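So, who can interpret the following?
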Amino acid sequence: MIGYARQAAGAAGYGLPLETSALVLDSGESRVVLCGVDVLGMNGPACDALVERVASATGTQPAAVLLNWSHTHLAPQLGELGIPFGYLAEAVRASASAYSHVLQDTIVSVCRLAVERMEPAAIVWGQCATDLAVNRRERTLGSLDGDTILGWNPEELVDNQVTVLQARRADESPIATLVAYGCHPVTASWNVLRYSGDYPAIMRQQIRTTVGGECIFFQGAGGNILPRFAFTDDEIEAQRVGTRLAVAALAAVAERRAFPVQISSYRERSATPYRIYREYPLAPAPIRLAYAQKRVTIPLLPHPELADVERERKEYETSLAAAQDLGEGEWTKVAYYWAAWARTTAAQLRAGTAPTDVSAPIHAVRIGEGAIVTAPGEAFTEYGMAVKERSAAVPTLYAGYTNGLLGYLPTAAEYQFGGYEAGYAHKGVGLPSLFDPSVERICVETGVRLLEQLFPDAQPWDADDGWKASGALPVLPEPPTLRHPDQQTTESSPILSDV
């Protein structure tokens, strides 16, 4: 497995299931593919090629394909497609490579099957809040651990919104429920040597059991967000978090109707007279389904000096040799993590091939009056909040970890505090230095401007008003109350020709 550098051994069995699941929406003019995958993440040209394959297999454009990584830390290694410096024993390299290709084929197959199983449907959006997560950038100024560690920081923002997209039949039974929430799936720690989908797996099971239909999980802007009680030694906390998330998601859409209804009544009589009321679904108006994409270039901060990297390389390799001599499996893997980065970066600096920027796509998809915006990495919670605050769509589902995994995407304000995400996490994804702090504005502004293309009647956001999150999130209006037949008016609701 790859999610924790400290894991002393590979998986010895299976826990909560790892899945790939997909929802395809088709309006007759446009088609969108929304696919959730239980994997730490994929990135680079191989990921771009996979998106192209899915688009070809489903009859749509790459801009309309969203592959979202749940980011579970208890998923298999992907060999050359995964995190470059995760320790991988020579004996299992071939297996990891084979798995990566099987997983890609599975993703394509699942998305194709979703197209084959489309049926007439309408959609409904829902949104609510649940207090399951914390901002993990805990300040420890002056300590030996540095300025920031992974813990609890109650002073910083957390986007606790759960956003739900549900496709339903005319009888309002669910065909599929897509749930988005931004929080690292790390309820289970490095001591749990089993493959596991973590809390999203429980959420999916609970929703399927309770209301039926398929269920897809989309990871949100969870880069700096943890479950309140993370890194436990079993999957009990995953059960608790997943169940609470399922309850919240179902509550978010329980009182919302995908189809408009006509309410009729008639008189009956037994020992006493009474009136019976019935509702009948009406034909909704067509939905607006559209998408847009832009490939952004994100600059890196200046490279470290070769002499400094060489010094680090020697220190890391000394630690690696010591751990190997002592037979300390978990610390061997940790030392390897650092040493591999230093070797590669030193070689790049000597050859003059160290990258100075990276590129990846950002997507926006309009589904009725709601929308999805993506980030190609571990976006901080503030990214999603900033986009939602400026979005022309209500609700806006913000999906980090989508169609790429560049690494951590911190806010500009967090660089002063250092720590893992804003200090040295670039080493784990093979970059010589951190992203430039302009990454926050690039991702937020691009997402907002793409939305404005899809909602041309909306007032464009004034750049002079800034791009940072305030924490004041828009809220989806409450559903209308059903009226007495003598008072009701017919109102349209969006429909998809097929789902």
User: Anything to note?
Assistant: Residues 490-495 have pLDDT under 50 and may be disordered. The radius of gyration is 24 Å. The chain has two domains: 20-259+286-290+361-465, 306-351. The first strand starts at residue 20 and ends at 26.
